[in-house]
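Tutorial sheet, problem 5. The two components below are modelled jointly, 229 residues in total.
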Amino acid sequence: EDQVTQSPEALRLQEGESSSLNCSYTVSGLRGLFWYRQDPGKGPEFLFTLYSAGEEKEKERLKATLTKKESFLHITAPKPEDSATYLCAVQAKRWGGSEKLVFGKGTKLTVNP
Amino acid sequence: DTGVSQDPRHKITKRGQNVTFRCDPISEHNRLYWYRQTLGQGPEFLTYFQNEAQLEKSRLLSDRFSAERPKGSFSTLEIQRTEQGDSAMYLCASSFEGSGIYNEQFFGPGTRLTVL
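Model answer (structure tokens):
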């Protein structure tokens, strides 16, 4: 069964203090790994898709990387507006295709000014 | 705004009542998904449509749940005889499946269901 584990569950940073969030996954064959941002009471907002080990993508202060077993979301010099829950999800290769995303529980990030 | 929209945003109902939610996907998207999210958890897949065809359903989708996408545009999710355990955020997402191009799922704002 496909599984996604995110750590830490919660992270408090001071503004400007860089850190990384971890997403470990178990999947029979990876079709894609996704990062989303979710603000309280809202739907997830798409950030990145990674397809193969070694791939990296960047957007403003965020950089996502992928290995064969895990992904990292690096946050450089975060600002208070980066406070949110960050969700990781995987999509597996399936005979006949499966479009479902399997999500982790998320990491709640708080950035203090 | 051309994002995914959901209606209503909030629904409070009594146990045993039926409820129906609506999702309007991004206009050019041919795939539509339903997920459910409870507090402190990530979204869990329920079902998805390509055009009007329902192609995949989760074990979570009990016989009290039914989803439709009659014309390949908007979709409805109905829950019959609601139970307190159905209280959750119901999320809709859409994507475009084009030849050789993989496209991401974009989520709507969700419908928050509270069953009393």
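Marking note: Chain B touches chain A at residues 4, 31, 33, 35, 40-45, 48, 55-56, 58, 91, 93, 95, 102, 104-110, 112 (CB under 8 Å). Full credit if you identified this.
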